[in-house]
Amino acid sequence: MLNKIIFAIDEVLDKSILDNLFEYIYGIKIGYPLLLKIGVNETINLVHNFIKNDKEIIMDLKLADIDNTMKSIVSQLEFADSYIAHSFIGIEGALDELKKYIDEKNKKLYLLASMSHKGWNDNFYPYIKNVISKIDPYGIVAPATKLQILKTIRKDFPKKIIISPGIGAQGGEFGDALCYGADYEIIGRSIYTSKDPIGKIKEIVKLQEEKINVC
Ligand code: C5P
């Protein structure tokens, strides 16, 4: 079975529902909404069965601060495997030190190359591309809602892991991002707002499989 879904959890959900999704997902992405609603300890309890169990736990706080503050944030979320940061904050005094810190902990850094919403301006992608090239993160976040920019990012970074949000609730079609170069599709609301999350995720996997067979 295709294993290309990173489940974005931005709402409180039942632990038993999450546990039942285990075999269908590659990893979990945790955002501010969940963390602020239930706190760090409850978040750890919720994702407990996924930690150190071959499932990547990605902390999506879109870090965008000075090095010291970002390192302090990461140090309080050590249960995660990976952390997402913005690229636009630049290198010296920010991403250089964050990358070093995350490397020392044998964790992974993802940098945002482009956002999935309409208002994001890709005109400054050349600047972002330069930052990503210099920092050399483990992976890149690139949007499923803008397939041409996703394709460009894949071409510019042929060996990086690309994770792609914007599918389902934000309009992207299941499987499209995989066809345009993403390694994984980040999917949240389409699954956790469904009345039948397991049925929904099975349907999504099937749609992804059908799509990649013809792209
Ligand atoms: O619920 P939905 O499937 O839209 O979830 C997408 C997730 O990916 C959300 O957690 C959102 O914050 C995140 N994200 C995004 N666009 C980006 C980066 C992250 O939608 N460019």
From TrEMBL:
InterPro entries reported in the protein's UniProt record: Aldolase_TIM, OMPdecase, OMPdecase_arc, OMPdecase_AS, OMPdeCOase_dom, RibuloseP-bd_barrel
Family membership: Belongs to the OMP decarboxylase family. Type 1 subfamily.
PROSITE patterns (UniProt xref): OMPDECASE
Domain of life of the organism encoding this protein: Archaea
A GO MF label: orotidine-5'-phosphate decarboxylase activity
Assembly: Homodimer.
Pfam families: OMPdecase (PF00215)
Gene expressing this chain: pyrF
Segments traversing the membrane: none
Gene3D superfamilies assigned to the protein according to its UniProt record, in alphabetical order: Aldolase class I
Residues forming the catalytic site: D60, K62, D65
Protein purpose: Catalyzes the decarboxylation of orotidine 5'-monophosphate (OMP) to uridine 5'-monophosphate (UMP).
A single cellular component GO annotation: cytosol
Broad class of enzyme this protein falls into: lyase
SMART domains reported for this sequence: OMPdecase (SM00934)
EC annotation from Swiss-Prot or TrEMBL: 4.1.1.23
One GO term of the biological process aspect: 'de novo' pyrimidine nucleobase biosynthetic process
Biochemical pathway: Pyrimidine metabolism; UMP biosynthesis via de novo pathway; UMP from orotate: step 2/2
Keyword list, A-Z: Decarboxylase, Lyase, Pyrimidine biosynthesis
Reaction(s) the record says it catalyses: orotidine 5'-phosphate + H(+) = UMP + CO2
Protein name: Orotidine 5'-phosphate decarboxylase
Orotidine 5'-phosphate decarboxylase domain: residues covered: 4-204
Upper classification of the organism: Archaea, Thermoproteota, Thermoprotei, Sulfolobales, Sulfolobaceae
Residues binding substrate, per UniProt: 10, 29, 60-69, 116, 165-175, 188-189
